[in-house]
Amino acid sequence: MILRIRLIHLLIFFSVSLLTGLERDSWSQWRGEKGDGHAPEGKYPIEWSEDKNILWKALLPGRGHSSPVYQGDHAWVTTAVETPASDKERDSRIKESKFPGAAGLHYLSKVDLFALQIDLQSGELLQEIKVFTVNQPQAIHRLNSYASPSPILEKNLLYVHFGAFGTACIHTKTSSVIWRNQEKRLWIHHENGPGSTPVCFADLLIFHLDGTDQQSVVALKKKTGEVAWQTKRSGELRENPQTQKAYATPIIASTVDGPILISTGADWVYGYEPSSGKELWKINYGILGFSNVAKPVLYQDLFIISTGFMKGELHAYRLLGHQMPSLVWKLIKGAPKKPSPIVVKDRLYVVNDGGVLTSMEVQTGKEVWRSRIEGEYSASPTLAGELLYFSNQSGLTTVIRPSNSLEIISENQLRAGGHMASFAPYKEGFLIRTDHAIYRIGTLSSK
Question: CB neighbours of 70 closer than 8 A, spacing ≥ 6?
Answer without folding.
Answer: 26, 27, 76, 120, 153, 424, 426, 431
